[in-house]
Amino acid sequence: MRPYFYRYVKKKIIYPGIITSLFVLWFRFYQLHTIDQQQTGPSVLVPPMKSSRDQNRRICIDDKGELVQDSRFKDLDFGTGRASRRRFSSRTLSDVRCEDNITRPHKLFAPLHNVYNFTAIEQVPRKIVLQYDNFKLSPPHLPTIEDRLTFCAGRGGHDLVGRSSQHLLVGKVNIVRNGTFELPYDCGYMNDMEFLCKQHKSDVHVHALSPLIVPQAYAYQHFIDGTMPKLIQSLDVLKIPEVKILLEKPRNQIIYEMLSKLNISTDRVLWYEPRKIYSADYLVMACHAPPLHPVLWRKMRTVFGVRSAANPVGAGRVVLFTRRKGAKNIGRRMINLDDVIKALTSRYAERFVVLDIGFQKIGEAVRFFRNVSTIVAVHGGALYNMVFATPKTNVVEILPYGEPRHHSAVNIFWAQSELLGLPYWRLYEKTVSPSRDLVVNISKLTLALDAIDNT
């Protein structure tokens, strides 16, 4: 009797209960997904990133000492899905008021260049979503097995091979009615629309304002990688004459010329003053843009007047960037700089050039790099000049590693080289001082230059 009773309970109660529970969970997930898609449109998510500790080290080096790509990353692209951060169930009434009765976003698949001919801010859709195409990073060129092993053990470098990017492939332009802006505010993917809707007594009020306060964007290099992609993405909106743009006062004169290349005159720029609150009838929020995407960076290069054709192979100068003059951050200097200069002079003779000061004019930089075939530099702001280089210009970055441990953005120039179509070489050198000075291994540098000259 008892075994029969147990079978009856399993068959009539437990098994149907499990099936019903699974169905309810599936239905609930499907319902939330559908609501979210209707309210915010599809969003793009990055697949979970695995740390380098989780990788099998043997996949980095083959029997010949060559870097190979993990098959797990080979065909891995960004997928579409529901962003849990933006779930409809978590939206508040203030979010709805902030969006100013937005129903569905206006979707495009390109930066806003000659897409619209806006003449007034009232013509701009309240929300524009831009979907960018996938792109993948190829592994850097590494001259020795030691360099390859260091790359595989480094900070997320191998995780990026074969991936589109660490950043989402979505850009957004939002129009907030009767908004106020003050710092601190994250001008990136984590920007909070509700923050802009809080009403404060403002110090400066204009009809239309686009705040683009990016950390340290008063400096040349961070204006390029932080502010320029946002300006390039949203130019059709920002070129409306009544839209003022809020920026930090530049430290480098060349930034003013970059703005003029975008037809943004200084009379349309408000220079940010600390502790002031800015308000506008229309806040144009253009912060949400992929900082690293080939479409934006190559468009930037076109705006600067860089030609899209590559230089003749082997015909250009070889340029060495040094940090002898004008460097804002001390350190990362070549201890054996004289030996490096002697070796490169002996190798390239009159084709070799040492550059230790920055450019003051865009035209000057563009003309200089038209006849450059290889750039050699220690990791630093001077490498941002690669944005003026023509395609196929080789970039050799000497990357310090070791103590002190703290060192950010180690992959930024690799990524930028990939975006601009520039072959990228990386040489690791251990630091020999707390300021991350280093001694360049000239034999290793010669190996890289031999490979470059023989291609």
Question: What keyword list fits this structure?
Answer:
455 residues; alpha/beta; Rossmann fold; seven-stranded mixed beta sheet; 14 helices; 14 strands; 31% helix
Molecular structure report:
This protein is an alpha/beta fold. Among the domains are: 94-133 and 169-291, no CATH class; 304-453, Rossmann fold, CATH 3.40.50. Helix content is 31%, strand content 18%. The protein is built from 14 helices and 14 strands. The strands form three sheets. A seven-stranded mixed sheet has the order 3-4-5-9-6-7-8. Strand 13, helix 13 (412-420) and strand 14 (424-430) form a beta-alpha-beta unit. It starts with a helix and ends with a helix.
Rg estimate, integer Å:
26 Å
User: Based on helices, strands and strand pairing, what is the structural class?
Assistant: alpha/beta
Number of helices: 14
Average pLDDT reading: 76
Q: SSE order, as H and E?
A: HEHEHEEHHEHEHHEHEEHEHEHEEHEH
The gross shape turns out to be: globular
- N- to C-terminal separation? 84 Å
Strand order of the largest sheet: 3-4-5-9-6-7-8
Uncertain spans: 32-59, 61-65, 69-104
Helix content: 25-40%
